[in-house]
Design goal:
Helix content is 45%, strand content 18%. By secondary structure, the protein is an alpha/beta fold. It has three domains: 104 residues, no CATH class; 256 residues, Phosphoenolpyruvate-binding domains (TIM Barrel, Alpha-Beta Barrel), CATH 3.20.20.60; 102 residues, M1 Pyruvate Kinase, Domain 3 (Beta Barrel), CATH 2.40.33.10. An eight-stranded parallel beta barrel has the order 1-2-3-13-14-15-16-17, surrounded by seven helices. Strands 4-7-6-10-9-8-12 form a seven-stranded mixed beta sheet. A two-stranded antiparallel ribbon has the order 5-11. Helix 7 packs across helix 8 and helix 15 runs parallel beside helix 17.
Length: 499
């Protein structure tokens, strides 16, 4: 039997020892953050700090060396970072024939406890999943959903009902939840309720002029004024060009004050995009860079994204505070939309405490570039509460960070959530074609299968939502046999036999 190259072993030992030392130093440096988290999350927060320290390094060459020695290449250390490093060190010590035992510090999580704690936290926040699957199913309920449809959803596999508080009012939500309560009683199916507050979600308010934006064959780029007041926009801007341009109002007028030349503006999940060319009092001139299929009709109520703009608006609007009064009495968890900074989380925690609702779960909706960039801080702040989750709101994320980055961003989000032992919710346009038309696309079926790596998958409302729930439940049960987070599970393959 060939012996491993001693030099390779020694290099690997030195590298893993350095990683373990950096993990310990990182924990000590941010101990003040650990002391603030809820006791339930102390292990997860500590493990997150260890994981972050390791992931600050480029591990690719070390991974190749470890693999060549027949050892773990650290590709699955999310839920037990320190324990993974210790296991590799033990194997390397044996290969290097080091007889003395190392002095060990008890890791916050082990190979067994890390996954068990994550599932414990998912159970507390999201409830139990259906039999034969570990991923729960969340459904955004239409305001007019009848009791019969709600019964079919519960019987088909809906575990969590989501109410989008940017639509409707407290009376309508109360009636919907009463129908859901009766459906739950009649079916005997338990469920949880998530209410999303709207948050600082800028939308088109009014439109002045022709609402259709078309890119001409000549290559010229149309322009429009994004403004506080559509009626005053042309007067404020002045000049003949302003007379010809389309005027588009913003539902949060203060956003216009934060725009600067060069900032990008996106409409309706990226169906149209442009760049600010000039700003004046109360208005910004936007030049259109692209429009899906060459022409887009602007409509009031559609969303606006400003990925380059630091928005100086509060995280909770007066309506959000009113909605929290309802949510505190009726929901199991609250979705914090368009969270941008730890102070946004602290504000929500304070508002829930003021309503004697600190027990409510908090779901961070990651849908902006600042939220993604500050995710570790957001997690550690949210983990001061007892029940915490993260929603991967991939629609806005794709617009904010670019579709080309979406795949890697969603992977990093899943890794960080697992390292923190915080449940993740896979959201936005899952099985959208099936839901709307009754026929899925090949790409979205693969996407639904990928959602099995999260603790929950969210479906939006649609004409075929009952059938869509049944479909995704079938996919999740099948994937449960094959995949556990990043690890492929090697059950016997029926196609492996030649006879």
């Amino acid at each position: 039997m060939a012996c491993p190259d001693p030099q390779v072993v020694e290099h690997a030992l030195a590298a893993v020892e350095a990683l373990r030392a950096s993990a310990g130093e990182h924990e000590q440096r941010y101990r003040h953050l650990l002391e603030a988290v809820h006791p339930r999350h102390r292990a997860g927060a500590t493990n997150l700090l260890h994981y972050l320290a390791v992931r600050q390094q480029d591990l690719r060459e070390l991974q190749r060396r470890l693999a060549s020695l027949g050892l773990s290449s650290l590709g699955r250390l999310e839920s037990c970072a320190l324990a993974s490093l210790d296991a590799v060190l033990g194997a390397l010590d044996a290969l290097a024939r080091r007889p003395e035992a190392r002095e060990r510090v008890e890791p916050p999580t082990t190979f067994a406890s890390g996954g068990a704690l994550l599932e414990e936290h998912a159970l507390a926040l999201l409830g139990e999943g259906g039999q034969g699957r570990q991923t729960r199913v969340m459904v955004t309920l239409p305001g007019d959903a009848r009791k019969g449809e709600l019964k079919r959803l519960l019987q088909g596999g809906m575990d969590i009902a989501r109410i989008n508080c940017s639509k409707g009012d407290a009376d309508a939500w109360a009636e919907l939840l009463e129908r859901l309560r009766k459906a739950g009683q009649e079916t005997g199916v338990a469920y949880k309720v998530l209410c999303d507050i709207a948050g600082p979600n800028p939308r088109v308010s009014k439109i002045g002029g022709s609402a259709r934006v078309t890119l001409p064959a000549s290559g010229e780029r149309p322009r429009f004024w994004l403004c506080k007041d559509v009626k005053r926009a042309r007067a404020l801007a002045g000049g003949a060009e302003a007379e010809e341009a389309l005027a588009v109002g913003c539902s949060i007028p203060e956003v216009v004050d934060d725009l600067r030349p060069g900032h990008r503006v996106f409409y309706d999940d990226g169906r149209l995009g442009g760049t600010v060319q000039a700003v004046t009092e109360g208005a910004a001139l936007v030049e259109v860079d692209f429009a899906r299929q060459g022409s887009v009709k602007l409509k009031p109520g559609k969303g606006l994204n400003f990925p380059d703009t630091e928005l100086g608006i509060p995280s909770l609007a007066p309506k959000d505070l009113e909605d929290l009064d309802f949510i505190a009495r009726h929901a199991d968890m609250v979705g914090l939309s368009f969270v941008r900074s730890p102070s946004d989380v602290e504000r929500l925690q304070a508002e829930l405490s003021a309503r004697e609702a600190a027990h409510l779960g908090i779901v961070l909706k990651i849908e902006t570039t600042p939220a993604f960039q500050q995710l570790p801080r957001l997690l550690l702040t949210a983990m001061r509460s007892e029940n915490v989750g993260v929603m991967l709101a991939r629609g806005d994320m794709a617009v904010e960070m670019g579709f080309v980055r979406l795949a890697e961003v969603q992977e990093e989000l899943l890794w960080l959530c697992e390292a923190a032992l915080v449940p993740a919710i896979w959201a936005t346009q899952v099985l959208e074609s099936l839901n709307k038309t009754g026929v899925p696309t090949r790409g979205e079926v693969t996407d639904a299968a990928m959602s099995s790596r999260a603790e929950c998958v969210m479906l939006n409302q649609g004409e075929n939502i009952v059938a869509t729930v049944a479909f995704v439940v079938d996919v999740l049960k099948r994937m449960h046999e094959h995949q556990d987070k990043k690890r492929a599970l090697m059950r016997p393959l029926s196609v492996s036999r030649l006879d």
